[in-house]
């Protein structure tokens, strides 16, 4: 089958949405499909390099990056058997739904004429699958824009979809579309995301340890995520505050990521006299990221609101055998089995974060058990080949 994916970004840019689209494309090709991914082009970013599938960056007429209008989709999406939209994608999500709906109407009419006239059959209408990643939580005037857009357009996008996929029903039950989810439950399918094959347990890289300013006896809590304004919800400032509250100075944090908020977090670290305990790596490539997971002793996701819906970093951490700490948020908490593979932490509560980190490292036997459980859970639940096979079943059904 010919499959098109429409998404706001792809690796090497940071972001879970792009990583999911990337993995789906790779796995769907292995299943015999022809896949092309459409996304907005970004200056200085080569989205095509190293990909096993076809990528076509498009020049937006309005906006850029996560919010961009791509009128080229009106003709680029023709003649595909399946179109997969990764939502949210401001500016192009509605356009994708409109294009598919119009093309489907055209094809349906042509099919009816062919059947009526006894002529050669035409292709079946395009299937439209929406992968609902998360709600969008904005502030200020942008909040008004988001609310208007959701009320006017989101239901149309969801109604246009033949199938809707989410990583977690727990998230949907508490999301902006919970009423639609309950009303149209048969359209929804739960497919947990997976961990790429390169994430696996390995010894700490001693050279990397020294380069990042750590010693072997340090206990490193790792954060991985975007540090730009679009990822304001990651809760990095609460992690920094938590490190200040921890008396054991061997417990330290390593923050991996880049963006315009990085300088603010660095300033906060300096103000709290934590430069010896909180380190920043900047951007880390996908190739080097497994080394950072294995450099750490635990991985944390201290997000603060429903803009965080799952947390692929948690699955990658577990695949590396690392216990996890994650906020008690819908969707995110479905990955953490409290006191089994890590701890659930209270959002926006630095004291609770500090306490859970101390608990994690206080009991060596429990820590070891958490690590073993992480590997077992990933093997059973969080594999990309399993996710892609499930998506393939949904597409073909």
Q: Which class do the helix and strand fractions yield?
A: alpha/beta
Q: Judging from the principal axes of the Cα atoms, what is the shape?
A: elongated
| Arithmetic mean pLDDT | 90
CATH topology of the largest domain: Rossmann fold
What's the CATH class of the largest domain, please? Alpha Beta
Helicity level, as a percent range? 40-55%
The CATH superfamily of the largest domain is Glycogen Phosphorylase B
Please give the order of strands in the largest beta sheet: 3-2-1-6-7-8-9
Distance between the termini: 13 Å
Total strands: the figure is: 15
Number of H- or I-type helical stretches: 14
Q: How many domains comprise the coordinates?
A: 2
Could you give the order of the helices and strands? EHEEEEHEHEHEHHEHEHEHEHEHEEHHH
Strand content: 15-25%
Instruction: Specify Rg, calculated over alpha carbons.
Output: 22 Å
Poorly predicted tracts of residues = none
Structure in words:
- The protein is of the alpha/beta class.
- It folds into 2 domains: 206 residues, Rossmann fold (3-Layer(aba) Sandwich); 176 residues, Glycogen Phosphorylase B (Rossmann fold), CATH 3.40.50.
- Helix content is 40%, strand content 18%.
- It is built from 14 helices and 15 strands.
- The strands form 3 sheets. A 7-stranded parallel sheet has the order 3-2-1-6-7-8-9, sandwiched between helices. The chain has a 6-stranded parallel sheet with strand order 12-11-10-13-14-15, with helices on both faces.
- β7, α4 and β8 form a beta-alpha-beta unit.
- The longest helix is centred in the first third of the chain and has 25 residues.
- It is elongated.
């Amino acid at each position: 089958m010919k499959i098109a994916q429409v998404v706001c970004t792809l690796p090497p840019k940071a972001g879970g949405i792009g990583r999911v689209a990337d993995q789906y494309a790779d796995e769907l090709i292995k299943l015999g499909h022809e896949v092309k991914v459409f996304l907005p082009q970004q200056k200085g970013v080569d989205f095509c390099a190293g990909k096993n599938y076809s990528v076509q960056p498009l020049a937006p007429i309005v906006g850029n990056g996560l919010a961009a209008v791509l009128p080229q989709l009106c003709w680029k999406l023709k003649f595909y058997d399946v179109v997969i939209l990764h939502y949210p994608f401001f500016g192009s999500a509605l356009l994708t739904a409109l294009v598919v709906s119009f093309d489907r109407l055209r094809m349906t009419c042509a099919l009816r004429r062919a059947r009526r006239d006894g002529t050669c059959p035409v292709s079946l209408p395009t299937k439209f699958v929406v992968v609902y990643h998360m709600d969008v939580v904005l502030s200020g005037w942008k909040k008004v824009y988001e609310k208007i857009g959701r009320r006017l357009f989101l239901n149309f996008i969801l109604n246009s979809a033949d199938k809707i996929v989410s990583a977690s029903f727990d998230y949907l039950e508490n999301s902006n579309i919970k009423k639609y989810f309950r009303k149209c439950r048969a359209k929804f399918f739960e497919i947990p995301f997976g961990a790429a094959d390169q994430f696996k347990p390995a010894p700490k890289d001693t050279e990397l340890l020294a380069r990042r300013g750590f010693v072997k006896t340090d206990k490193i809590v790792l954060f991985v995520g975007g540090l730009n304004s679009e990822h304001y919800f990651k809760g990095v400032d609460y992690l920094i505050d938590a490190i200040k509250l921890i008396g054991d100075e061997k417990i330290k944090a390593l923050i991996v990521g880049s963006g315009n908020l990085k300088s603010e977090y660095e300033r906060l670290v300096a103000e709290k006299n934590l430069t010896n305990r909180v380190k920043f790596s900047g951007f880390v490539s996908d190739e080097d990221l497994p080394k950072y997971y294995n450099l750490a002793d635990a991985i944390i996701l201290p997000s603060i609101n429903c803009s965080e819906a799952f947390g692929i970093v948690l699955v990658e951490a577990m695949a590396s055998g690392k216990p996890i700490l994650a906020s008690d948020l819908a969707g995110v908490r479905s990955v953490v089995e409290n006191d089994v593979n890590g701890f659930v932490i209270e959002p926006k509560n630095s004291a609770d974060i500090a306490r859970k980190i101390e608990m994690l490292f206080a009991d060596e036997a429990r820590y070891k058990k958490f690590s073993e459980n992480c590997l077992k859970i990933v093997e059973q639940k969080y594999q990309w080949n399993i996710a892609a096979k499930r998506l393939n079943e949904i597409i073909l059904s």
